[in-house]
Amino acid sequence: MKNSRRISSQILCIVIIAFLLFFLFTTSIISYQYRKNTSELITLSSQHSVQQLNEGFITFYQQLIYIMVQLSSDSTIKSYLEETPEDTFCYYQMQRYVNTYLQSYNGFFSYSNVNIILYGKNNCTYTTYNETVALEDTGIIDEDFMQKVQKNPKRMGIDYYHRGITRETRDKYYTFTACSLFDPYSQSPYGYILIAIDESCFSSLYFNLRQDDNRFSVMTHDGLILSDSDPRQIGRTDRELLDISGSKTAGIAVDYQDKKYIPVSAENAFFDVRIVQLTDYSTITSKVFSNTLIVVCITGLILAAALLFLVFAVRRITRPIQNLTMAMYNIDWDRASKRPAAVNCGGCLEAEQLGAAFDKMFLELDTYLDNLAREQNARRLAEQNALQSQINPHFIYNTLASIKYLSAAGRSQDVISGITALIDILRKTIGDTRETIPLEEECALLESYFKIQQLRYGNGIRLMLQISEDCRNFLVPKLFLQPLAENAIFHGFTDNNPLGDISIYAAKMEDTLIIEVIDNGQGIPSHILATILSDDAALIRNKGFTGIGVKNVNDRIKLIYGAAYGLHIASLEGYGTQITIKLPLIEPGTTHCI
Questions:
Q1: 467 and 440 Cβ atoms separated by less than 8 Å
Q2: pTM listed for this prediction
Q3: Which positions fall inside the Histidine kinase/HSP90-like ATPase domain (predicted)?
Q4: Rounded to an integer, what distance in angstroms lies between the CA atom of residue 462 and that of residue 502?
Q5: What DSSP letter does each residue of 35-46 carry, written as one string?
Q6: 449-475 per-position pLDDT tens digit
Q7: Cβ neighbour number for residue 17 with a 10 Å cutoff
């Protein structure tokens, strides 16, 4: 015998292949899981950073609101914005007072690049700048955001990336917020508060959150970048980054500017801006590679040691079997007067017992297999006939009960129609000895049965068939859909006046015919659903739920096609039941072997 065909060689080959596959599978799973966990950790960290930054913006906004409220409640400020100064000296005195007063609010911020401007209806301007500003000459009063504030005094206006309004700041860009100083007694504004916010105010909020592998960006909803950890991006309109921040891609690597990043974003409703953090994806891959390499090496060493042990164990265990095989192989059966009662090959006890039993087993094997095959075929046929005989009387009983109901109601024409439909069903079932029929014929039988039920219950119950054209000719067990529809009618819907839909779908999935029977009835209680297809189904019948229909169909299918096929039931009380039937694809003229 060739060495490659020895049981030890084959086992070792299978073991080695299994170990290699296991090694590849394990390393790929470890690598994937580690990358996933690392990505999730970085995403969670980024989300925490963005949330912290968003809270910083909220705090900053609340500080601005506090300043506006304090200024609007100051009576001295109100008088300075309403009354016209008597002379220049008086105006300078007012300027000095207000400037000092406004400077005191800079202590609210950890940065100083916030300038406050007050503009009164007396056309006087007071600022925290070191230079005098004639606000009406800057044109900012006519800007859209200021016009909105003037039209709606209770609203705060924001203008992004606006040039500075003084000589020293005209080459820089600021975010301006404005609100009206409103007199509740006269119901009119007596001035305006204008706050100029430098970009450094925003960047200081995420300064401590910055790292080498991440980037923060604050942008408007039209893509204008107001602040960025990369100063070169400030003032640009980046639609690509806007789309990335607006999509649901948190934790998923995306391509941006020829690199991969993990984006996390948040909306700040107060400033009406979007906060974005991009984390370099190469950070994850670099961490994953080094750690995965260590895990792979350790796993490889463990598997190699286990493989060596298995090689030794397999050879030790299979050596007696190999000796037994060689002893049997070298027997000259043509010249031997009789087969030996035992083959003495030594080795393990099992090998000795196998040699002793070989001759007797060989002599009786053929007879035993023939008898077993005949017995199984006879038993299978008897069980199928028994199951079919259960279905037919049960079906006829329920159908005659429906016709009896019609007769009692005096609906003679419906009785005639029902009996006609019943005769048609009986002719195609009892008079037809075929075990299986095309799915199209089975559907026709179901429609005839449904006509009888609709005569009794009216159009409250509806049958909808959605059968793919390529599935109509496949063979199915005869009269297997009717018990399922019957259970849906009598147990899924109300007893006196059933209302509901029964939908049947059929389609091919690879080499399997999948049929679904779906109703929108009362559903099956969980304690019944758990045992409806088991051998304990008889207990359910004693509690008022018939076990013939569903379990019988399942048993018939398994007897005809094998244990791989049958029913699967999913149900939710109050919503309905879905029965999925799995059958082999068998065309007329072909057979199926279990």
A1: yes
A2: 0.48
A3: 475-587
A4: 6
A5: HHHHHHHHHHHH
A6: 888 878 777 788 899 999 999 999 999
A7: 10
